[in-house]
Specification:
The chain has 5 helices and 5 strands; from the N terminus they run E-H-E-H-E-H-E-H-E-H. It is of the alpha/beta class. A 5-stranded parallel β-sheet has the order 2-1-4-3-5. The longest helix is centred in the last third of the chain and has 19 residues.
Length: 154
């Protein structure tokens, strides 16, 4: 199973890169998690147009056979155990899973509608660069829980 995190954003800040690399390094050889940058739409007339243009880029980057998980503050909140359950199911199914973090304006409705699940990291609005670090850390934590690794403490 391949797990991919698509992020609509400019080049991440240094602290974001450091945080992401820490958890990606811990997962290396254990879980295939790849992070891909997608360029944000610039020069859009308004927020809705920007989201629609970014949606086109997201859909172009997606493998049509992959399971899409959209990250959006209006989605369902998952505990770490919930995420571990989803991860176990994804691993068992063996299909590619793509998680998508939208740009500064969020995700367009067609992306949310196409998603198998919509996941909210928090009822708070998080900067998308911080969300990236949280998602990668939580995937590592879920993997730790599934594999009885001491990182996740009960």
């Amino acid at each position: 199973m391949r797990l991919q995190l698509l992020c609509v954003s400019k080049r991440p800040a240094g602290w974001v890169d450091i945080g992401c690399q820490e958890y990606l390094k811990r997962l290396q050889g254990r879980l295939d998690l790849q992070v891909r940058e997608l360029p944000p739409a610039i020069g859009s007339a308004n927020a809705e147009q920007q989201k629609q243009r970014e949606a086109a880029v997201i859909f172009k980057a997606l493998n049509p056979l992959a399971t899409l998980i959209a990250l959006d503050e209006r989605g369902a909140g998952w505990s770490t155990r919930d995420l571990a359950g989803h991860l176990a199911g994804w691993l068992e199914a063996g299909r590619e899973v793509v998680l998508v973090i939208g740009g500064a304006e969020g995700l367009a409705e067609p992306v949310r509608a196409a998603a198998a699940r919509v996941w909210s990291l928090s009822p708070l609005t998080l900067p998308h660069q911080l969300a990236r670090v949280v998602v990668i850390e939580q995937i590592y934590r879920a993997w730790s829980l599934l594999n009885h690794h001491p990182y996740h403490r009960e």
